[in-house]
Structures are given as structure tokens and as C-alpha cells.
Design the sequence.
């Protein structure tokens, strides 16, 4: 699997995983926003593929999807954004995140080939659970792209081994049963879940859903291998549009600073 | 495909253990919902094997819904259609009268089954999506009957154009939530239903209104609706001691059609599903997923979808809000590819003509959905022999549609 993804999770601190929707507000504006994520200290980039029917997303990312599609974003634009990102940032892992239909429209092999050619390291498909892995997983693995799986509060111990079977990159723990951007889980339940997940896998465990403040990020960074932030960044893009790069960089810097010292402050 | 078709022992034993109808169907849901969907399947298997559950279902259908619905020979319609037919042609037209059910459509059959299942699973809150409002009314009805709180998601556009049904749902005690995302119609209401479900997994049961969604929904909705075809089959045999030659039903998501077709799938009976052609199949203003779409993944299943080359879902159009959905139940996708059922499409204008034709000839005001089926019957009856029998599903009554029809006909009300 991708060397870029495995080296993005250092042993001494949590990685910062940052999501934005490709093409929001326009395809032309996305590269500067991705640069800002890297400059602010993001370790892994999740590039959202817009979809007309983002049924697992809350209002913030739904609106980002619609802004992107209204700007005319096509699958070809997203792959071009990924290709350009790879040439500017050869060492930063890039993950595509989205829904099954845009990913499989031209066939799973077409998508895996195109993603691999664009330098994509992993794929998170929200609505392909392990039961339907055949729809995309084999094509991704054949191209060395990590199929990144999601575990949730409803993924019990009996089910977990199946979820991990064939998984790659990192395990994304969705800390809340719900849609993106709404509320955050209580810290105790996150700690309990991460401990349980780490006992079952050697993959890094990144925790997301509802993470907004540096304090929340630091609290998760103390127990997990990665912190995923999405809706909060998308909100900044919504507010600043094509001029979002500066505010995004400053916000990401506040998170990465908090994460950098998170474990030191508890250990001291 | 045809080779496989001839080798099948039965068309009635789908889906497979993973919920697939050939390449269609499946369980394409977020991980949070996956354990729930598996749990639902387990409970449905147990319910299906439990005579008490079946007895409860049958009892409610008889005494609350008013089943069996009549099987009716539409004599004047048959004669009217024969006027344009060549000598010796003009098939007999019969109707399965599911528009006479409580709440005015076939939707209630499925809602009775699902609410019994919800209660069996200990769920205490019901959610549903609705387009025209018929499924919303049927869901609100069974929730009132069993005293469960009920939230109905309905596109804001549909809320505006279906005010009488919104009021009905409220009278029945449901909370109606207008959905403003997307185009604010049925598919957006379904997205919002899924979002609610994923956030309320412990106490909430999602009553899906058609034979679509993640497995086991397509199977269980079909099973509950199959009462239509089982009754019709028995009624035909007892009335005239033979089966019909052709079954016809309108298709939005496809539950009334599957309900009629499924019990006949292994008989020598032809079947025709009628999609909504809207302003015509040559443009993009239609809702014919099978005839004008491509296989894809949406709302938990793989099926034919109206979509662009990037897999973005496009908005369907039909005069009938109940057919205005960019997808189709996965079993229809499979039946189409197997060649077992034929599919056609009827435009808004043709449906409007058929709507008025049935009013005048039979004294029955049909819903705009079955008006599509009647339009297809009118086209095909004249090519069939006089002793042949067409059985069409009259799946809903037209009270809800009179405002739409008046507007289209330029009548001020």
C-alpha cells in the first residue's frame, strides 16, 4: 500500500487529516485551498468528490457539493486537481472521498486507473460497505490504492473483523452516529472506541465527525493516530469563497499547533 | 441474458442471500446503517416464518384496509377501445381495484406490513419520505392506528403542490418536514430520511414507500404488495377459470407493479411496466429510468438511474408526482435485463387523455399514476384478440390529482 499514507502517521503525534470539497467554490479555486491546507500543517488531504445526493452529509458539506456542481465541476476536473496537487506536493498523501455512483459510473477499473494515474493514495467511499466491496475494492487494490474503511459507533466487535478485511491506509472512526458536521462525541466514548479498534488492527486510527476547535482536536490527538476535520474547513470556504486560502491556512495552523503539543501537555 | 433466462427454474426466488437481483440491488449504505439493515433482515426472516405475524397482517388488510379489493371487468372501456380496433381485435380490459383501499392507493398494504415489523423490533419512532404524499398519508395513517410518533420528509416543492395531502398527514398526527435541499422533491426527501435514520439508529424505523432502497427493503415491500397479485390470480381463476394474457402497471419506484406481477412471474402471462415519459423520451424531461437511464448506485441499491456521464443524478419530470423519481426498484432492473417483463413509457399528455377516458367510460377517477397504465392499455388492446384479457392495476384514485388535471386542462377551480 501507499508509502505516503503510512508515513503520514508519525509515532510521536497525531496526524491532521483535512477534508475539502473539490471544485468549491470553483475548480480553479481548489488548488490554492489545498496548498493552504499543506502550509497550515495538514498531514493527509481528503479531496471530496461532489455528488448531487450526498445523503451522509450535513448541511455544510451538502451546500459545498451543490456549489461545486453549480460551478460545473466534472470528474475530469477533480482528477486534474489531484494530478496538479501531486506534482506540487510529491510527499503529501491525497485521498479521494465521495459516493459510489460518481466513482463507479465508468466502471471501477476506469476509476482506479484514473485515480492511480493522478497520484491518489486512498479512496473513501461512503456508501460502499464491506458487503459490497466487489463494486470497487478489488479494482483499487489492484492499482495499489488503499480502500479506506469507516468504523462507527454501530460497528460492533462481531462485525469489526469483516470491516477490516481488505482495508488499507488508515481506519476512519466516525465518532457519531449521524451526518457530518453536526455534533461531537463525548471524549470518553472516543477513547473507549479507539482502544477497542487499535486492539484489532495495525492500521492507524483517525477520528472524525464534528471536530471544530483546536481544543477538540488536541483532545482526540491524545488518544488517536489521526484527527479528521471537514465541515469546519468547508464553512470557511463557504464564507470566503475564492479568497479562502488565507483564512483556511490560519485555521489549519491553529489545529496543527494544538495537535503538535497535545501529547506533551498531558504527559508533562 | 436470454440464455440464462431460459434456464431459470423460477423468476420468483430473487434476491440472493446478499440481496442482489443479478447485478442489481444490494446494500449500498453508510457503515453506520449497515448493522441496522442486517438486523432488519434478520427480523424480517423471523416475521415471515411466523404465522402470528402473517395472521396480524391479513387481519388488518381485511378489516382496516378493506381487502380483498375487487377485480372488475371494464366493459364500457373495452367497448370504447374496440371502436378503433380492426375486426376481431380489442382485448377485454380488467382492473384490480386497489384504488378502493383505505387511503386511496396500494401504498397502505406495505405500510401495514412495515409498521408491524417495526413494532416487532421494538422501534418507537417512524420516519418516511413521500413525493405526492400518498405514501406519507399511508404512513401517517398506520402510525395513528398504532400510536407511534411519525416524521414525514417531503420536498418543499411537493409540499407546495400537494397541500391537501400535507393537511391530511397533519390531521393524522404526523410531523411534515419540508426538505429544501437539491430540487426539493422525492429524491431529496429520501436523502433527508436516510440522514434522520443514521442519526437516530436506536429507536427509529424507516418505512420506505417503494420496492427500492437497501436490501431487504426491495424484497419486503414486494412481499407485502404481492397481496395484489395473489388476490388477482385467485379472483381470475374463480371468476373465469383462466389467467390473464397481459398484466399492465405503472412504474415509479415500481411497488404496485411488482405487487401485481410477482405472483404471476412463473405463469405464461406477459407483463408490461409503464414508465413516465413526461414531455417525451427524446428530451431529458421524463422519469423513465429503465428506458432512458443507466445502471448506477443510489439510495442503497444498484439499479437504473437517470444520471449524466459523471454519475450525477438528474431530475426526472412527470405530471404525476408519484412517478417523478430518477430511480427504479432493483427487481425491475433485473426483470428488464432478463427480458421477463417488457417496459414502455407514456407521456403526460397521453396520461391526461387516459385519465379522462376512464372518468367518462367507467365512472372511475384514477390517479395520474395508473392513468399511465391505462394509456398503455388503450394503445395495446386494439392489437390483441377480443378473447384475450388485459389486467391492469388501478393502484390509486384521482382525488389528489384533480387540481393538477384542472390546471393542465386550463380549468379555473
Sequence:
Amino acid at each position: 500500500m501507499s508509502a505516503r499514507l503510512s508515513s503520514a502517521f508519525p509515532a510521536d503525534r497525531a496526524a491532521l487529516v483535512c477534508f475539502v470539497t473539490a471544485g468549491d467554490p470553483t475548480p480553479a479555486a481548489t488548488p490554492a485551498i489545498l496548498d493552504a491546507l499543506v502550509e497550515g500543517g495538514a498531514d493527509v488531504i481528503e479531496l471530496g468528490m461532489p455528488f448531487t445526493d450526498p445523503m451522509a452529509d450535513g448541511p455544510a458539506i451538502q451546500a459545498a457539493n451543490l456549489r461545486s456542481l453549480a460551478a460545473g465541476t466534472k470528474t475530469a476536473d477533480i482528477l486534474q486537481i489531484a494530478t496538479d496537487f501531486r506534482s506540487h506536493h510529491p510527499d503529501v498523501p491525497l485521498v479521494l472521498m465521495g459516493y459510489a455512483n460518481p466513482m463507479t459510473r465508468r466502471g471501477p477499473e476506469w476509476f482506479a486507473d484514473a485515480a492511480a494515474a493522478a497520484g491518489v493514495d486512498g479512496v473513501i467511499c461512503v456508501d460502499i460497505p464491506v458487503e459490497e466491496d466487489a463494486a470497487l475494492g478489488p479494482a483499487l487494490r489492484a492499482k495499489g490504492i488503499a480502500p479506506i474503511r469507516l468504523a462507527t459507533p454501530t460497528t460492533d466487535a462481531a462485525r469489526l473483523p469483516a470491516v477490516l478485511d481488505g482495508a488499507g491506509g488508515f481506519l476512519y472512526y466516525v465518532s457519531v452516529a449521524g451526518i457530518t458536521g453536526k455534533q461531537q462525541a463525548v471524549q470518553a466514548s472516543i477513547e473507549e472506541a479507539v482502544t477497542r479498534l487499535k486492539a484489532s488492527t495495525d492500521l492507524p486510527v483517525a477520528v472524525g465527525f464534528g471536530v471544530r476547535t483546536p481544543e477538540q482536536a488536541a483532545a482526540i490527538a491524545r488518544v488517536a493516530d489521526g484527527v479528521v476535520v471537514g465541515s469546519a474547513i468547508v464553512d470557511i470556504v463557504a464564507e470566503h469563497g475564492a479568497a479562502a486560502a488565507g483564512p483556511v491556512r490560519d485555521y489549519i495552523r491553529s489545529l496543527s499547533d494544538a495537535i503538535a503539543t497535545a501529547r506533551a501537555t498531558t504527559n508533562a | 441474458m436470454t440464455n440464462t433466462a431460459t434456464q431459470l427454474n423460477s423468476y420468483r426466488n430473487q434476491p440472493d442471500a446478499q440481496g442482489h437481483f443479478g447485478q442489481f440491488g444490494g446494500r449500498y449504505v453508510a457503515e453506520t446503517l449497515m448493522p441496522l439493515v442486517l438486523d432488519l433482515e434478520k427480523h424480517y426472516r423471523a416475521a415471515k416464518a411466523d404465522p402470528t405475524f402473517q395472521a396480524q397482517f391479513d387481519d388488518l388488510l381485511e378489516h382496516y384496509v378493506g381487502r380483498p379489493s375487487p377485480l372488475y371487468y371494464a366493459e364500457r372501456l373495452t367497448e370504447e377501445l374496440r371502436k378503433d380496433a380492426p375486426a376481431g381485435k380489442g382485448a377485454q380490459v380488467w382492473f384490480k381495484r386497489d384504488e378502493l383501499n383505505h387511503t386511496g392507493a396500494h401504498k397502505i398494504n406495505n405500510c401495514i406490513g412495515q409498521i408491524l415489523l417495526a413494532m416487532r423490533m421494538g422501534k418507537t419512532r417512524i420516519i418516511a419520505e413521500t413525493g405526492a404524499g400518498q405514501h406519507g398519508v399511508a404512513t401517517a395513517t398506520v402510525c395513528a392506528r398504532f400510536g407511534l410518533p411519525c416524521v414525514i420528509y417531503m420536498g418543499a416543492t411537493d409540499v407546495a403542490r400537494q397541500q391537501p395531502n400535507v393537511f391530511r398527514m397533519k390531521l393524522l398526527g404526523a410531523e411534515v418536514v419540508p426538505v429544501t435541499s437539491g430540487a426539493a422533491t422525492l429524491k431529496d426527501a429520501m436523502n433527508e430520511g436516510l440522514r434522520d435514520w443514521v442519526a437516530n439508529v436506536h429507536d427509529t424505523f424507516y418505512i420506505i414507500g417503494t420496492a427500492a432502497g437497501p436490501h431487504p427493503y426491495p424484497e419486503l415491500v414486494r412481499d407485502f404488495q404481492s397481496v395484489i397479485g395473489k388476490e388477482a390470480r385467485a379472483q381470475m381463476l374463480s371468476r373465469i377459470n383462466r389467467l390473464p394474457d397481459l398484466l399492465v402497471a405503472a412504474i415509479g419506484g415500481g411497488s404496485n407493479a411488482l405487487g401485481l406481477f410477482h405472483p404471476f412471474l412463473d405463469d405464461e402471462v406477459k407483463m408490461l411496466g409503464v414508465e413516465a415519459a413526461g414531455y417525451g423520451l427524446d428530451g431529458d424531461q421524463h422519469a423513465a429510468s429503465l428506458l432512458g437511464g443507466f445502471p448506477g448506485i443510489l439510495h442503497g441499491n444498484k439499479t437504473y438511474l437517470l444520471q449524466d456521464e459523471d454519475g450525477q443524478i438528474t431530475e426526472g419530470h412527470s405530471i404525476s408526482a408519484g412517478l417523478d423519481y430518477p430511480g427504479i426498484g432493483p427487481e425491475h432492473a433485473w426483470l428488464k435485463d432478463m427480458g421477463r417483463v417488457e417496459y414502455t413509457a407514456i407521456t403526460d399528455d397521453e396520461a391526461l387523455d387516459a385519465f379522462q377516458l376512464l372518468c367518462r367510460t367507467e365512472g372511475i377517477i384514477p390517479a395520474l399514476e395508473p392513468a399511465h397504465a391505462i394509456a398503455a392499455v388503450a394503445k395495446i388492446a386494439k392489437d390483441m384478440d377480443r378473447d384475450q384479457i388485459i389486467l391492469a392495476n388501478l393502484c390509486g384514485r384521482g382525488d389528489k390529482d384533480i387540481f393538477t388535471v384542472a390546471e393542465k386542462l386550463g380549468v379555473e377551480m
